[in-house]
Structure formats: C-alpha cells, structure tokens
Amino acid sequence: MLDVARSFCPLEELLGIIDAMALYKLNVLHWHISDDQGWRFPVDGYPDLVSEDRGYYSRDDINYVVSYAEKRNIMVVPEVDMPGHMIAALSAYPKLSCTGGPFVIPTGEGIFQDILCVGKADTIAFARKVVDTLCSLFPSPYIHLGGDEIPLDRWATCPDCQHRMQELGYKDEKALLGWFSNEIAAYAREKGKSTILWSDYVDASYDPSIITQVWNPLLGKHKRFHSNHQVIKSDYFHSYLDMSYALVPLSRVYRYGKSVQKDRKQNTKVLGAELLLWTEYLNTREKRESHLYPRLLAGAESFWTKDSKLSYTRFKRILTHDIQLVSDNQNNVNKPSIWDPLLLEQIKARRARKKRVTANSKEAGISL
Fold first, then answer.
1. pLDDT-based confidence at 222, cuts 50/70/90?
2. Among residues 78, 105, 77, which one has the least CA distance to residue 89?
3. For residue 310, is it left (φ>0), alpha (ψ between -120 and 50) or beta?
4. pLDDT of residue 141
5. C-alpha to C-alpha distances, 269 to 87, 142, 237, nearest whole angstrom
6. Where are the domains of the chain?
7. Which CATH architecture best describes the domain 2-363?
8. What are the residues whose beta carbons fall under 8 Å from the beta carbon of 303, sequence distance 6 or more?
9. DSSP 8-state assignment for residue 204
10. Using CB atoms within 10 A of its CB, is residue 258 exposed (0-12), middle (13-18) or buried (19+)?
11. Phi, then psi, of 244 in degrees rounded to 5
C-alpha cells in the first residue's frame, strides 16, 4: 500500500516502486489516493477536488500506471477512504459535511471530527460518483473504500443524519455507518467490484461480501476475524513500513511471512497480506526509500517463500546486491546497523506506540 494522499508521489518514483514490486513478486499495489490531507484524482462533476498546486494524477496518468503495472503482473487496487478521512474533499465541497465548514486541509497525521454527511442525498450521489470513477479507471475486481477511524459525533447532532436514522429505524450512529458502508458496497457490486474495508467497525451487520483488512493487532481476535468475511492481514507492528526500525525492525517484517502462511493454512478466509507505507511525515523520495528498503524486500520474500527455505541470515547477506536493483541512490537506504535495534529499544518503542494506537482508537469510537 502506497499512500500518495498525505504526500504526493511523483509518477517517475511511483513507477520505480512498481518495478521493485515486480522484482520481488508483490502482485497488488493498493493505491491510497485520497485522505484528509489530499485528493489525488479527478471526479466528473467535482472539479475542485484537485489542483495543480497540491498535485494529482490525471486520467492519462492513472491509465498509464495501471497499464505499466499490468505488464508486470501487478493489479492496482485504488482506495478512497469514506466516510471519514475526507477533509480534503470537504474543503472543496463543504456542503457534503454536516456543519458546512469552512475547512482547512491539514498536514501531518490526525483523526478529524468532520466526515461525510450521509443524511444528505447530495453526499450519497457524490459517493456513488466516486465509485463510478474508480470503476471506470481501474479494471481490478476490487476497490478499497476505507471505512476506518470515523468519529460519529457530527452525525449525533446533525438533523439530516438523525432524519436518515429515523427513516431507517436505527437507534444509533454506528448502525447508520453500517448502512452507508453496505449501500456503497452494494452499488460497487452492481458494477462488478468487490469492496475492501478496514476492519475497524465491521461486524455481523456488514454485507458478508465485504473483504476486511485487519491492521490493528490490539483488537480482540473475534473483532479481527469475522467468520463471514474474507481477510487481508496488515498487522501494524509487522507491516507498517513508515514506522521506525525500532518499532518495525527488519527481522520482524521478515518473520511476518511465516505468520501469514500459518494463518492461511488454518483459515481459508485469509487472502494474503500487505505491507504499507503511510506518508504523513515521508514527504520526500529520500525519506520514502529509507523506510521502504530493505523492509519491503524482506516482507515480499517471506510472503511467498516456503518456510523451509526462509533464512534471514541468507537474506541479509544478499541485500547489498538487491538494494542496488531497487534504489538509484544507495544513500537513501539505512545502513545495516539500523535494521535491527537492541531489544530494549524495540520494547520501549512498542509500548509507546501501543498507547498512541489505543488513544486514537478511543477517539474514533473503536472499542478494543
């Protein structure tokens, strides 16, 4: 997963990442192309979503990326996160919110209170138009519609959302969220697309055809794996490559493949796993490459290599050669002394981040 919403990734760099993926047999590019901090593709009828100043991909750019990836046996799966993580869209079209704005596009990370107002017909029309656009641009049978970190406070005081709840006979805003997710997933399914959602709020009320992507290992197992949903694994503490090496050391990424393969043997609902690069603070190619390599290579190898052939010692031995194949500038790649920090440093980093993830989950109304 490459996040180009928080920090725009130039086309040339993106194509280089696809080349690296192909070399290491990663067969899906999950392209995170919208978030609070940026909207990176055009949608008919909503021209103000994009601007040259902020950076975006034209339809021709997207067609080229999809074709480039297909020739290398890589499927491009787009993600537009909704109904949360929408400040960039709301800043251009505040009428799609509950409050009417105004909104300022933020920088850095954060969970923001303003989300799409699903009580308004205009908002539902917008969400469907976004799906129309994704379906027309991406031949992949999957689209990712986010669905994570959604504070519901605005809906609780919004007349339009409350009216929608009354019409549907719902008693709380969480049920309204499930309705919206199911409605948009059904609309996508009519167009031949399967929907992927982050697993934060998915429960038995969600359409079983929705695929869940599990990122938060702090959720109880019964919340992470729903018996009627297929699963993509992307454990925060093993696959979030934007984190420091103290939090996600190279050896832990390499070991993740064994865990994924074990889960797939035990649970046929597990489709596979994913490595992720969020870019709230990775706003240059140098920063992105220093976080990607060599961890992207470690995860990729361990995902498809049989347990009996996995060898971290061998993998590290050949890295000097392999890094030369994926990075034009070796100075962008961290030195071996950084890859696996001392255990005490790892423990401290993990404890600190667990507190942060727990706090963010509570802010978004997610019970752990």
1. very low
2. 105
3. beta
4. 98
5. 34, 16, 22
6. 2-363
7. Alpha-Beta Barrel (3.20)
8. 26, 256, 257, 260, 261, 272, 273
9. T
10. middle
11. -65, 160
